[in-house]
Amino acid sequence: MNRRNRIVLSCVYWAFVLYVFVPLILMILMGFKDSKFIGFPIRSWTLDWYTGVFEDAEVLATLGYSTAIAVLSTIVAVAVGTWIAVLLEGRKFIGRTAIFGLTVLPALVPGIISAIAFRIYARWLGIEPGMGAIIWAHAVHNVPFVALVVMARLSTLPKSQIEAARDLGADPIVAFLRITLPYLMPAILGSSIFCLLLSFDDFVRSFFLGGYDPTLPVLIFAKLKSGMSPEINAIATIALVVTAAIGIWAERFTRRLNKDTQA
Question: How far is CA 117 from CA 145, 173, 238, in A?
Fold first, then answer.
């Protein structure tokens, strides 16, 4: 690669970095503005909007509600996605392609169409809008990501380890619990964090299937109807910092777990 191509690629890279991070930086800065309105210049700074978030009972309750939904939907998605991955990987049977296609389909359907379909299906099943309906929709949407990640990890599992366990008298369940499951833990943990963040940030399905208690994205949307204010920036910044911290921790922990598994 010559110098000209390196310069072009470097310019493209930094342009992309600016495109991604400049809006985030501006959003964070506006949360410190000592004014009820968003806009430049920022003549004075304050932490009142951030302290107000932690003193707002509605925001804290909504944060806990969104976290509970994310955790429960992730548990369901991980259980179902891992089971499907183990069922499909390395096996050939009639209907395998159809099962795989149906598994990844929720990830391919546009969010608004998926939300409308879930709403119609929930009404047909008699499921009332609320926490249960949101967990159900988020779990179905997240299953494909778990299945694909676990299948990719499972494809690298040395078959000799399973065969050795079977030769030593382990039945399929014991072999899975002692050999396959520990080997899959990095993939399961990584997909769990990804699903957790997806569910926490999901707006469309939460909006269509939610009841009287809003999730955090729905609450932010409701506050936007009365106009932009630094309070919204403060809430969004706190959510951004929390999700980023979880993602960074999960990435480092997954790497460490992956090294321990390969050792």
Answer: 20, 37, 32
Tell whether 25 is covered by a domain: no
Contact (CB, 8 A) for 82 and 196? no
Phi, psi of 95 (to 5 degrees): 95, 0
Which amino acid makes up residue 176? Answer: F
Kindly report the CATH number assigned to the domain that includes residue 162.
1.10.3720.10
- List, as own/partner pairs, every contact residues 24-29 make where C-beta atoms lie below 8 angstroms and the sequence separation is at least 24, other chains included: 24/240, 27/233, 27/236, 27/237, 27/240, 28/233, 28/237, 28/240
Q: Given CA atoms 252, 257, 260, 262 in this order, what sign does their dihedral have?
A: negative
Residue-level pLDDT at 231: 82
Domain count of the fold of the chain: 1
Assigned token pair, 3: 């110098």
Residue 110: which region, alpha, beta or left (left: phi > 0; alpha: psi -120 to 50)?
beta
Report pLDDT digits (tens) over 34-88. 777 777 777 788 888 888 888 888 888 888 899 999 999 999 999 999 999 988 8
Write the CB contacts of 182 (distance below 8 Å, at least 6 apart in sequence).
261
CA distance 175 to 106: 31
